[in-house]
């Protein structure tokens, strides 16, 4: 039996029954990576085939980790030249929690867009990851490496990060489950910041049960993160109930408009009919400020990013280009170290924060952000969940959108509002296009109500079985 094909909960059961050992899982996984990763390139390695590093400790189930989450003694470079060779002196809190739970992390790190800037994993200094369902297509981004690894059975489960959709959109492109927790639910300590008021770490898994299990491990208050919230962590597996009778679900009319691919629309509508037949009550709702989400996000996220990236000065971390003066050293290092998208965001963000423009852009965007959050608060007064497509299109071809940043930015149109509001959301597989590319269904709920979306997602999954369709590579 190929252990790498199984879910974490199936493997845990086998370990408990003493049918297998953790070492077997690790060695099976490493074999799979050696076989497939030269094609998929889900992991960060210049030479993908040779000798993947052994896992840190061969315990429990290994979790594959995105390259922006600090792993002590293991390179953490955010797929940016500017962090070349950076070896964090400490673990992110999520890593310590994984180890404390009796599991381990895989020594290899997952590919991503540089500093999580992107929707396709094409902005990595290591080159793009390929979508396992069609190697000519992108896996989505920025957690494309994590999603592709899970889809190709090169990972049992993985962690990604989501600032504007970077867990959910790649999950939908790769046909896996991706959950973005409530802001403050999971510690950001040791996550290299992109936009601190939006970033969250979350699971990418083969099914909903694994997402709940990984949430149990990584969630909870952390004194090292001042934005982590001190509310008790429920046992998320208790929400895996195959029953949604009477659940009230809203369908936002602003999400089913021009630009939505007809095959994606059809798959999501079919999912809605299925959920109706299972007893959920649907009603159209309105999120009137939806049209401002993308511009608001690209002002706030770039403003925060430009400030967060100021620390990469050639002194403390990574790359250093020695020059005659200190200023020249800063300049040269940043010029060579950052890729085009990082530079674009530093320029945009610095502009939005500069004197004379701050009020017109940044402050205004913050006000509209509040309106977007209030839209959700209003709907959740009467509804448990909201359902939308995860992405307006299935996976696109590598290179198709690289010359047009605006087009690329629009691929996050359905995921971004969630981060602006700080609420949780999950993407689950809900079908395939005629060309065999996966489609994702997004479920949203109120702050700290991950339970409701897990229940809906679980019921849908158990009654459809899309997650069981495996690709042949
Ligand atoms: N694609 C969005 C961006 O480029 C979101 C990225 C993310 O969630 N990290 O900003």
Structure description:
With 473 residues, this protein is an alpha/beta fold. The protein has one domain: Amidase signature (AS) enzymes (Alpha-Beta Complex). 36% of the residues lie in helices and 12% in strands. The chain has 14 helices and ten strands. The chain has helices at 8-16, 22-40, 93-100, 144-151, 168-174, 208-218, 262-277, 293-308, 326-337, 340-353, 359-380, 405-410, 416-421, 450-464, and strands at 62-66, 104-110, 157-162, 177-180, 200-205, 248-252, 281-285, 385-389, 425-432, 438-445. It has a ten-stranded mixed sheet with strand order 2-1-3-5-4-9-10-8-6-7, sandwiched between helices. β9 (425-432) and β10 (438-445) form a beta hairpin. The longest helix has 22 residues, at 359-380. The radius of gyration is 21 Å and the shape is globular. The model is unreliable at 46-52 (pLDDT under 50). Glutamine binds at residues 116-119, 142, 162-166, 194, 301, 412. Residues 116-119, 142, 162-166, 194, 301, 412 line the site of glutamine (GLN).
Spatial order of the strands in the main sheet?
2-1-3-5-4-9-10-8-6-7
- Name the CATH superfamily assignment: Amidase signature (AS) domain
Strands, count: 10
Helical fraction equals 25-40%
Largest sheet: 10 strands, mixed
What is the topology?
Layout: H1 8-16, H2 22-40, E1 62-66, H3 93-100, E2 104-110, H4 144-151, E3 157-162, H5 168-174, E4 177-180, E5 200-205, H6 208-218, E6 248-252, H7 262-277, E7 281-285, H8 293-308, H9 326-337, H10 340-353, H11 359-380, E8 385-389, H12 405-410, H13 416-421, E9 425-432, E10 438-445, H14 450-464
Parallel strand pairs: 1-2, 1-3, 6-7, 6-8
Antiparallel strand pairs: 3-5, 4-5, 4-9, 8-10, 9-10
The structure holds glutamine (GLN).
Glutamine binds at residues 116-119, 142, 162-166, 194, 301, 412.
């Amino acid at each position: 039996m190929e252990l790498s094909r199984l879910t974490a909960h199936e493997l845990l059961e086998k370990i408990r029954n003493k049918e297998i050992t953790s070492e077997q899982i690790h060695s099976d996984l490493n074999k799979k990576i050696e076989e497939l990763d030269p094609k998929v390139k889900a992991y960060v390695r210049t030479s993908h085939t040779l000798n993947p590093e052994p896992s840190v400790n061969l315990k429990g189930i290994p979790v594959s980790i995105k390259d922006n989450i600090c792993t002590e003694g293991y390179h953490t470079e955010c797929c940016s030249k500017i962090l070349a060779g950076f070896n964090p002196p400490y673990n992110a809190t999520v890593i310590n929690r994984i180890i404390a739970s009796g599991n381990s992390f895989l020594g290899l790190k997952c590919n991503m867009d540089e500093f999580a800037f992107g929707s396709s994993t094409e902005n990595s200094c290591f080159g793009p990851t390929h979508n396992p369902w069609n190697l000519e297509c992108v896996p989505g981004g920025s957690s494309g490496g994590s999603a592709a690894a899970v889809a190709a059975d090169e990972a049992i489960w993985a962690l990604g990060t989501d600032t504007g959709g970077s867990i959910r959109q790649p999950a939908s492109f790769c046909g896996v489950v991706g959950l973005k927790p409530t802001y403050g639910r999971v510690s950001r300590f040791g996550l290299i910041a992109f936009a601190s008021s939006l970033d969250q770490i979350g699971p990418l898994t083969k099914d909903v049960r694994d997402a709940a299990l990984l949430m149990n491990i990584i969630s909870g208050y952390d004194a090292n993160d001042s934005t982590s919230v001190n509310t008790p962590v429920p046992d998320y597996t208790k929400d895996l109930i195959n029953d949604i009778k009477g659940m009230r679900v809203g369908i936002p009319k602003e999400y089913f408009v021009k630009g939505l691919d007809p095959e994606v629309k059809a798959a999501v509508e079919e999912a809605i009919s299925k959920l109706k037949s299972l007893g959920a009550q649907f009603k159209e709702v309105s999120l009137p400020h939806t049209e401002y989400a993308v511009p608001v996000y690209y002002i706030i996220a770039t403003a925060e990013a430009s400030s967060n990236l100021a620390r990469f000065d050639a002194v403390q971390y990574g790359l250093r280009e020695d020059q005659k003066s200190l200023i020249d050293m800063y300049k040269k290092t940043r010029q060579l170290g950052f890729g085009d998208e990082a530079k674009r965001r530093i320029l945009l963000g610095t502009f939005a924060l500069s004197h004379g423009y701050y009020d017109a852009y940044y402050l205004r965007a913050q006000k509209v952000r509040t309106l977007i959050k209030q839209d959700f608060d209003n709907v959740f007064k009467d509804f448990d969940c909201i359902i939308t497509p995860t992405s307006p299109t299935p996976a696109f071809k590598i290179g198709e959108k690289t010359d047009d940043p605006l087009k690329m930015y629009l691929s996050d149109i359905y995921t971004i509002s969630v981060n602006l509001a700080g609420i949780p959301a999950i993407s689950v597989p809900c079908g395939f296009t005629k060309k065999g590319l996966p489609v994702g269904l997004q479920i949203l709920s109120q702050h700290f109500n991950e339970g409701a979306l897990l229940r809906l997602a679980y019921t849908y999954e158990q009654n459809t079985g899309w997650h069981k369709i495996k690709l042949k590579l």
